[in-house]
Amino acid sequence: MQNNGSWTLTRVGTYSNVKNDLNFKYMHEIVGEVAGKFENLDKDTIVIHELKEDDNHIAYGVVIAYSATEGMAVFVGDLWNDSGAGYLLSTTAKTDDVTVTAGMIATDFVKQTASITLAPAKLTFPEATEGYGEQTPLTVTVNNMGTVDTGSLNITLSGNNDDCFTVTPDAIDNIGTDSSNGASFKVKPNAGLPAGTYTATVTVSGTKVVSRSIDVSFTVTASPSTPVVIIVPDDTADTTDPAKNPETGDNSTHLLWAVMASSALCAAALLFSSRRRGEEMQ
To answer: Which of 45, 116, 207, 249 is the most buried (most CB within 10 A)?
Structure first.
């Protein structure tokens, strides 16, 4: 018979701690029987659970087998319809017979969840200069710290500059509960960004887990200034006809050299004289 409802199991304590405090009808016999079946366990160490339906007491008993991954437990209660009985409790409805092999006596029950962690906690890429090329991607590791598989996970970018980064891959099929079964993905800034600081958030999410996020940042610096030298003829004397230079009466040539840099106001004027005859420079 199947009875759908809000059923809960709560740890009460070890048999030695509760046997004199709770009103058991058949529990003493049940605990003794279970202890004998499980390789002569000390019955005082067996843990007693309370079964409730819609927060109403149903029975005290012992969980003689359970499957965390399938969400099932076999509960032997001291009072159910005025008799001791064993029942299969399941987190999902069952329409067929189920066989469960006794082998683990539950000491406590914890909600079965998948819980992921991301490492490192944030990513900061090395600075690059304008005109840079492909950058080396950084790796993010995803681990499952929960008690069930994660199921499929999606990896997305958001934030001010989410279009300036790339994640590979953008999904993870599943991460099991084995600690060695972690997964990873890579993040890198896109090539050719202009000077500035770029930030985004990477989020890993799924239907069975609480989403986790890390921040990423990347800075591009401006290219160094390149000095520009411009030669401007200023006062040119004819080198063949002194009459064309009546002020000096010589045939010297004067050139103004102006040195300018885009990053600073810098100018210098150099006056070179060369004489057509002789080696004197002034």
So the answer is: 116
Residues 190 and 236 in one domain: no
User: Which residues 6+ apart lie within 8 Å of 254 measured at CB?
Assistant: 234, 235, 236, 237, 271, 272, 273
First to last CA, the chain: 116
Task: Please give the Cα distance from 210 to 215 (Å, whole number).
Answer: 17
Q: What is the pLDDT of residues 156-197, one digit of tens each?
A: 999 999 999 999 999 999 998 776 678 999 999 999 999 999
| CA distance readout (Å), 4 to 9, 92, 173, 243, 260 | 15, 9, 32, 120, 86
- Contact status, residue 216 vs residue 125, Cβ threshold 8 Å: yes
What is the number of domains present in the chain?
Answer: 3
**Does the residue 152 lie in any domain?**
yes
- Domain range for 176: 116-221
Verify that 125 and 32 share a domain, yes or no.
no
- Using DSSP's 3-state secondary structure scheme, residue 180 falls into coil
pLDDT, one tens digit per residue, over 9-68 is 788 888 888 888 777 767 777 788 777 776 567 888 888 888 888 888 888 888 877 766
